[in-house]
Amino acid sequence: MFTRILILAPHTDDGELGCGGSIAKFIEEGKEVYYVALSACENAIPQDFPKDSLKKECIQATKSLGIPKKNVFILDFENKNFPNQRKEIFEKLEELKKEIVPEITFTPSTEDLHQDHQTTTQEAMRAFRRGSTLLAYEEPWNNIVVRTTFFIPLEERHIEKKNEALKYYGTQSFQRKGYFGPDYIVGLAKTRGVQIGSKYAEAFEVIRWVWK
To answer: What is the CATH number of the domain that holds 139?
Structure first.
């Protein structure tokens, strides 16, 4: 149904964590996928890594999922300070909307507690309030409540692609973030799959659905 898809990530890696399996499926189906990361978190890179590490990791990760490099945009908004950059973020999203014209946009959960994720979704709801379907992906470690009202069934190969992409984020595994672990990724995908009678799935919150 949808052919032009935008993955909106507050930080490099959020898109892969939230919907990496679905991205792999979209690419397999021949859909046109765009990936926009609002920040490469240069102020939060571990000391042992160059400041541009997350940018390079994101380019490698999205490439492994099959997204063309020309469709990947990595911006330089300041990590953990999105609320104070709200106006500029909205203006950039408006610009990208005109350039990409997505039919469906993925953004973080409306219940996400991270301030950058909250701002991203609030401004996405404003910028894409006309024309684009809006779905919110889950990152449960940031949520108290997770609304799962839309599911994308996946195959094992899609989850393998997701885990392959996440392996490129050496800066994050260095910090021993448990939600980057392959067992967690597979476990969550199996849990969501059980909810719809599929082996694997990713779950999303419907913010707005535009039937086309």
So the answer is: 3.40.50.10320
Bridge pairing between strands 133-137 and 104-108: parallel
Query: What is the strand order of the sheet 133-137 is part of?
Result: 72-74, 32-39, 4-11, 104-108, 133-137, 200-208, 150-154
Question: What is d(CA 176, CA 82) in angstroms, rounded to the nearest whole number?
Answer: 25
Q: How many residues does the chain have?
A: 212
**Pairing verdict, β 4-11 and 200-208:** unpaired
HSE, side-chain direction, 13 A CA sphere, residue 69? 5
Domain count, the chain: 1
Tens digit of each residue's pLDDT (9 = 90 or more) over 55-65: 999 999 999 99
Residue 56's domain comprises: 4-208
- Amino acid letter for position 77: F
Q: What is the pLDDT of residues 121-180, one digit of tens each?
A: 999 999 998 878 999 999 999 999 999 999 999 999 999 999 999 999 988 764 567 888
The rounded radius of gyration (Å) of the Cα atoms in the chain is 16
